[in-house]
Structures are given as structure tokens and as C-alpha cells.
Write a structure and sequence with these properties.
Keywords: ATP-binding, Manganese, Nucleotide-binding. GO terms for molecular function: ATP binding; metal ion binding; ribosomal S6-glutamic acid ligase activity. It comes from Vibrio inusitatus NBRC 102082. By secondary structure, this protein is α+β, with helices and mostly antiparallel strands. It contains ten helices and 13 strands. The protein has three domains: about 90 residues, Rossmann fold (3-Layer(aba) Sandwich), CATH 3.40.50.20; about 140 residues, 2-Layer Sandwich (D-amino Acid Aminotransferase, Chain A, domain 1); about 60 residues, ATP-grasp fold, A domain (Dna Ligase, domain 1), CATH 3.30.1490. It has a five-stranded antiparallel sheet with strand order 11-10-9-12-13. The protein has a four-stranded parallel sheet with strand order 2-1-3-4, with helices on both faces. α1 crosses α10 and α5 packs antiparallel against α6. The structure holds adenosine-5'-diphosphate and magnesium ion. Adenosine-5'-diphosphate (ADP) binds next to β6, β8, β12 and β13.
């Protein structure tokens, strides 16, 4: 069997995956990707590589880790190595507009969205967009940081200084219609090996006050790997659900993943008051909430599914 390399930049997130490999009695090597030297003109080891790079790496001081991942992905691809979540998937991870284009190409609804480069264009763009409430968020996002909800043009004007001070890494702001759901939750659909694993409801209560007055950043509230103390007080913040198990949306997501060579992902969706589902965030680096998995009694945890999938790829490639 080929060696398995896990490319990542966050020790904390790797722990449950390490445990899943231990359970299988398979050693997986870890490749910490932040800074380094890539000998692009050499031939990489003939192994299986799994890209777990996250768009939020800059929040852990790993500013250029996605850029380095792109270099590695190109190097591995050039040499025909097997890369799980390779083939340019990193470019989707760090660009929501690319995600929306790819989702729409598969007939998947995304919230109405426009893009702005240059803070001086935000107010006029918001005025023209004229959809309230309005979400303004970074195109290169992560962990909900910088996601804000505005109720009026005056609010946008008031928030402009803050938006300018915290401009997105790639300089692109997205203006997006706020999808109002009847019940306060979003759903994250998890896929491993391109196939649906399960969906998890994430409560938008409590930590999810997108009001500018509260600072508006959602921070870790939507990261299944973390449940901070505040979240701890809320019962069942993450709850595995079967509401989408028989939905045609799952098949469409699977088609989208296959088309874009994405093997492993968590796709966030939200249902509006009329019952229409919108897909708005593709996390090609995904984490799972073990408490919710245990509570639901899933036959296989997310990390176990990933480890088993990687072993299968390593045996067959
Ligand atoms: N258009 C929207 N309508 C309603 N809620 C949204 C919208 N966009 C983002 N949110 C909320 O903000 C959270 C973070 O936004 P998201 O687009 O997932 O950014 P990130 O890539 O940082 O996770 C979402 O999980 C959702 O709860
Ligand atoms: Mg998200």
C-alpha cells in the first residue's frame, strides 16, 4: 500500500483523524504546510496526498499556507501523484465566487451575490444591489470571520470604516442577499469520497447574532470541531439530521463534487421561508462534531470515513 500524507496547517484538527488512522492500524504521515521549499523540478514520492488546507489558515498566522498548498498541488499534479482534494480544489476553497460559479453550473441555487473590489465602491454597490437585509462577507473567508449583516444603507455607511479596516485577504467583498430561514439553523452536508455521509444542523441561535453592534464575527461558531464554552450552554448546537437524506439537492451536490474533483467536503446550505435551499459555502477542509456523531449513533464517524477512504485510495491507486 502506498504511503498516505496529510497536508494540513492546524494541529488541533488533525487529532481525531490521527485517532481514526490508529484505529485502522495504518500509519499516516503528516505534512505541516505553512512555509517551506518545494523542489518543483524533482519527482515527489509516489504516495497518496490528502489536502486539508483551510481558507481560515491566516487566522492561525499561516498567511500563505494556501498559496504554498497551490504550489504543492501543481507539483504533485504535474507528476501525476494521487491527490485527494487536489487538482486545484484549493482554489475553490479560497474563493467563494468560484464556488458559486461551479455550484450554479450544476443547477444548484446560491444566494444572489455580487462582488466589490475597492472599499470606495461598497456603498454605491450596496445601494444598487438594494436587497435588505444584506450580508457583506469576504470572498476568501473562513470561520465566519468578517461576515456582517446590514439592515439598511445607512448601516452600511456606518460600518464602512470597519469594513475598510478589516478588508478581505484577496480584496474582494461579496454582497449577498440574507437568506432568512424559518427556524434558526443552517445545515452542513458532509461528503467523503464524493458520497453523502450525513447532514448536520447547526443552530444559529446565540453565537449567531450577525448584528454589527455585536461585532458581528461569527468566529468559531460554525466550526464543528469547536464548541466553545458559550456554545456548550446551548443544547444540541450541532445535531445530525435526516431532513436532506432524500433531497435531490444531495445528488446535485454529489454531481458538483464529481465535476470539480472534490473528494471530501462539507457544503453549507440554508432554507428560506418558502422552503427553497441555497448552498453558500463549500468547505473542502471539513471537521466533524464528535458529540453529535455519538448522540446520533452514526455507524461511522466523519474522520473514520475519511481514514477508510484514504486507505482504499492508497490500496487501489
Ligand atoms: N447569505 C446568507 N444568509 C444568511 N446567513 C448567512 C449568509 N451568509 C452567511 N451566513 C451565515 O454566516 C455564516 C458564515 O458564513 P459563510 O459564508 O459560511 O463564511 P465562512 O466561509 O467564513 O464560513 C454561515 O454559516 C451562516 O450562518
Ligand atoms: Mg461557512
Amino acid at each position: 500500500m502506498k504511503s498516505i500524507y496529510i497536508l494540513h496547517e492546524n494541529e488541533e484538527w488533525i487529532v481525531p483523524l490521527r485517532e481514526a488512522f490508529d484505529k485502522l492500524n495504518v500509519p499516516a504521515k503528516e505534512w505541516f504546510v505553512n512555509e517551506g521549499h518545494i523542489e518543483f523540478d524533482t519527482v515527489p514520492e509516489n504516495a497518496v496526498y490528502y489536502n486539508r488546507m483551510s481558507a481560515s489558515s491566516h487566522t492561525r498566522d499561516h498567511r500563505y499556507a494556501p498559496e504554498l498548498t497551490r504550489v504543492i498541488d501543481k507539483w504533485l499534479g504535474l507528476n501525476k501523484a494521487t491527490v485527494v482534494n487536489g487538482n486545484g480544489v484549493i482554489d475553490l476553497e479560497v474563493c467563494k465566487i468560484s464556488q458559486y460559479a461551479a455550484l450554479q453550473q450544476e443547477g444548484i441555487a446560491t444566494p444572489k451575490t455580487q462582488a466589490v473590489v475597492g472599499a470606495d465602491f461598497i456603498v454605491s454597490a450596496a445601494e444598487k444591489f438594494n436587497t435588505w437585509p444584506l450580508i457583506i462577507k469576504p470572498n476568501r473567508g473562513g470561520k465566519g470571520l468578517g461576515v456582517e449583516k446590514f439592515n439598511s444603507l445607512d448601516d452600511v455607511k456606518l460600518g464602512l470604516r470597519r469594513l475598510k479596516a478589516d478588508s478581505p485577504l484577496d480584496g474582494i467583498w461579496l454582497l449577498q442577499e440574507y437568506v432568512k430561514s424559518t427556524e434558526p439553523y443552517i445545515v452542513r452536508c458532509e461528503y467523503v469520497g464524493g458520497k453523502f455521509l450525513y447532514a448536520v444542523k447547526v443552530s444559529t441561535e446565540g453565537g449567531f447574532e450577525l448584528c454589527p453592534a455585536d461585532g458581528c464575527s461569527i468566529e468559531n461558531a460554525f466550526c464543528p470541531a469547536f464548541e466553545d464554552d458559550k456554545a456548550e450552554q446551548q443544547q444540541d448546537k450541532f445535531e445530525i439530521t435526516d431532513i436532506l437524506d432524500n433531497s435531490p439537492l444531495i445528488k446535485l451536490h454529489e454531481q458538483f463534487l464529481a465535476k470539480n474533483q472534490i473528494d471530501i467536503a462539507g457544503i453549507e446550505v440554508i432554507c428560506d421561508e418558502s422552503g427553497k435551499w441555497y448552498s453558500y459555502d463549500v468547505n473542502t477542509n471539513t471537521n466533524y462534531n464528535s458529540k453529535a456523531e455519538i448522540k446520533a449513533g452514526v455507524p461511522k464517524s466523519g474522520m473514520e470515513a475519511i481514514a477508510e477512504y484514504l486507505v482504499k485510495v492508497a490500496e487501489e491507486s
